[in-house]
Amino acid sequence: MDEFLLSQNLRRVCNGEGDSTTSSSRSRQIILVEKPQTPYIVLPSESRFHHLIQRPHFAVDIGGTLCKLVYTTVCHEEGSDRPEVLLNFKKFLNIEMCLQFLKEEWVQRTEEDSLQCTGGGAYKYAETLRSELGVRIARTDEMQSLIQGCDFLLNNNEDESFTYHHEAEGIEKYQYKPIASDLVFPFLLVNIGTGISILKVNSQSSFERIGGSSMGGGTFIGLGHMLTKSNDFDELLFMAEKGDHRKVDTLVADIYGGDYEALNLSSEVIAGSFGKCNKFSSNQELTARPEDFAKSLLLMISNNIGQMAMLYGNRYNVKRIYFGGFFIRKHSITMRTLSYAIKFWSKGECEALFMKHEGYLGAVGAFMANLS
Ligand code: ADP
């Protein structure tokens, strides 16, 4: 715990066990005097959050690849008249690392406390979490949590959703799109995790899963590893940035020698992803590097998701399409490809909307579940 606080350059000013009257209402919070260097948002000053000043609240979304944790801390900065409750965000590559962190951070937990849990791991690891942490497990439905988290963030974090404009410079690339809560519905939420879920959200309490695909983030890390030997998502993205997919993909130009004018397809359009890897039909030696495979793979998956999202949007007549899930990682190639696909398939009518806390929607929803 101390190591954590020190590593975040935070100062501990008191252990919070002072002036409360009963043991159950006694403060079990450490009060910070500076905002952390790690990601957080300030929770609104609503009655449902007031008790979080006294005791922390933790929620975890355990998916097919990553564990996402959100948890509260309290910060009382000098000069401010009252403490604020912060919601902190942290992800882990596996359940063991997540458990270790929970044990260190949630020091004063008791068997009366509950860990909010969602995702497949809320079932798979329920017993491990219960016995290792000695707290209750409060499970919430994964899709319901996604929607609740998305709804909370859109309504309470002004700069949560944004569009991406690749051609712009620097900060101009990101245009924040706050939306009034009465205008947000209906919308599509395309959650790109290990796999993909497409949800049509009609209101806070009404949604349906209208589609999905197995070709998502898991495909990128899985096939990416087989093609490049890299085991690391960030390294794969880095390679994709350096890659040239034209060494791997068959373009319209490779077939037509230029544009396919009758269909308005430019020479640069990908006609066949990985088409050049077929040694049997090509008399040219393949000169592709791992970086080129990574780029081709990222484009193939992102293009496909963008097109699928827009086709579902058209089919259900929904113009507002949000993308969530940790596959995106605010990466320029991914956001550019998704944005392009949405614009292209909607004939310029729609824009792809991204979320700042893309991978944490489920965890935030689970966090909110028993607070209202
Ligand atoms: P899930 O709940 O299924 O684990 P997530 O929304 O957490 O889904 O997204 C998982 C996907 O995020 C992975 O399949 C991978 O494509 C991508 N990803 C982003 N960052 C990482 C990382 N550091 N390690 C592994 N995968 C990552």
UniProtKB/TrEMBL annotation:
A GO molecular function held by the record: ATP binding
Main location group: cytoplasm
SUPFAM superfamilies, alphabetized: Actin-like ATPase domain
Enzyme class: transferase
EC nos: 2.7.1.33
NCBIfam families: panK_eukar (TIGR00555)
The protein's name: pantothenate kinase
Provenance organism: Mesorhabditis belari
Classification lineage: Eukaryota, Metazoa, Ecdysozoa, Nematoda, Chromadorea
